[in-house]
Amino acid sequence: MLLSMLSRKEKLKFLDLAIHMVAVDGEATIYEKRILNIMLAEVGDEIIKEYTFSLSSDLEETIDFFTQAAKPIRNVVLLNLFKISMFDDLYNATEHFFLDNIRRQFKISIAKRKELMSLIYEERDLKEKARRACLSA
Question: Measured between alpha carbons, how far is residue 34 from residues 38, 50, 69, 88 in Å?
C-alpha cells in the first residue's frame, strides 16, 4: 500500500526490512511468502528484476536508513509492515515487539500507530464486504 511513493533504494530497503520481519519468528509461512510476493509486485518491475529474497546481515543499518527518511516514508514503511504482520490473521508477540521497536526508532507516536492499524483493518473489512457482495445472490 503506497509503496510506489518510495524511491528505488527505499523500496529495496523496505523489502529487506519486510524479510527481517517475517523471519523474526522463524521460517516464513506460506501466507507470509505470499504477501512478500504481493509487496514485491507493488514496488514495480524494475525492482522485481534485481531483487532476491535473502536476509541482509545488518538489520540495524536498514532501520537507521529509514530513521533518516522523511516522516511520510517512515509511515508508509510501518503501514506495510503492519499489513504483512496481519496478512495471516496471526499477530504474534515476537512480531509485535519487532514492530514496536521499529515504531519507536522511527519516532512514530502510538496515536499514529493506531491510525495506521485502523487503515489495515478498514482495508480488510472493505475486501470482506466486497467479497460478500459479489458472492450474494
Answer: 6, 19, 27, 10
- Each of the 137 residues of the chain gets a pLDDT tens digit; together they read 898 899 989 998 998 898 888 888 777 777 777 878 788 777 877 777 776 666 667 889 999 999 999 999 999 999 999 988 887 766 688 888 999 999 999 999 999 999 999 999 999 899 999 999 999 87
98-120 burial: b if 16+ Cβ within 10 Å, else e: bbeebbeebebeeebbeebbeeb
C-alpha cell, 53: 529474497
In the CATH scheme, what is the code of domain 3-132? 1.10.3680.10
Q: How many CB atoms lie within 10 A of CB 133?
A: 8
Q: pTM of the prediction?
A: 0.86
Q: Cell 510476493, residue?
A: 37
